[in-house]
User: Fold these one by one.
Assistant:
Number 1:
Amino acid sequence: MTKRDVPPRWDRKMQQRLARGEAAALGELYDRFASLVHGLAHRVVGDEHTADAVTRDVFAHVWQHPDSYDPRLGPLRSWLAALTNRLAVQRLRTTETAALARGGPGTAEELERKLRHASVAARADYIVQLMPTPLRAALELAYFQRRDYHQTAADLGVTDDEARRRLRLGLQLLATAHDAEAPGAPPGIGGAA
């Protein structure tokens, strides 16, 4: 089992350890998910310094409110992604609204469009990270290396039909990035929160 495939039992135990106030549990959680949290935050807010601040806010929230995560509702990873998205969008909304109030460029409508775009982009990143390796590899070949399904099949050592299946499924999963209510989606990732 890979680090990415965290069993639900681990999620429950982690939540219990955090609820008991075990600092080591927070450290373990941070080690496992800090790069995910920071990457999603950076995708929304667009700069390193603010992404660092959002990452600190996420883990501070987890430490202060460990009971806000319910393992019965889904994986801890998804909950952290949703929390990150919500806090990053709040931070972006606050800073951009303040800039508008000071007479900065743009309008409230442009701000909302920017927030929706950032949220969808973060959700797409999350979906790609969770995608099984064969699907992700096929999409990367097709998108980044501009391979068609024949070339993708040859590069992956699979049949043309299998390459088409992988590409189709990968694209179907990515299409859910626009759907805030996609089945199995982390809550709050698709919308501007």
Number 2:
Amino acid sequence: MTDRKAELAANLTLVEERISAACAGAGRKREEVTLIVVTKTYPASDVRLLAELGVRHVAENRDQEAAPKAAECADLPLIWHFVGQLQTNKVRSVSSYADVVQSVDRKRLVDALSRAAVGAGRELGVLIQVALDADSGERGARGGVGPDGVERLAESVTEAEGLRLDGLMTVAPLAGPYEGRPRAAFDRLMEISSRLRVAHPAANMVSAGMSSDLEEAVAAGATHVRVGTAVLGVRPRLR
């Protein structure tokens, strides 16, 4: 085993132990939580090693990096998640490789994704990104739609050809009433998810929690956690 593969294997084991312990503490089954490894800034060679180690879900946040990486790894049995703020001029590219777009936060983006998915002959999973630091009708500092805009946007997704409403995503806010309170933020996301599932029962995916707060996300009820640094190490600086 190469040094890098051994390093990734050890890190994955530690993350697995954290998720398992969090599930046990919350009275949940381990299989209720899916690990998504965020591979941004890391090379395709790391993605290949992760796949060899059993990882099936990977995430990227910049199309200019993700597109060539996904192409290089097209032979692997991976599910690709796009988690970054997405401009409409990147939608056609993203829709060619992403299986799930987790950062949908406005009607214009829904429309663009729909056109691209239909053009590519694909069905894209969509998560609505909820901004818990946003006022009514506003977008959050890190993207996302305010809680009061979720239902309307969900209807747009369900009416759009080529898209499938899978659920909700959030990033713990850096400001506002939930600053420094990830568990409270994730509890609020679960409340919004419960409301959404009344009208859209299949939209049961809840993506929340990262390397620093995955335990709080699991305790709140997240179905997917997005972990980068704890698996891959401290990120190289972007040039």
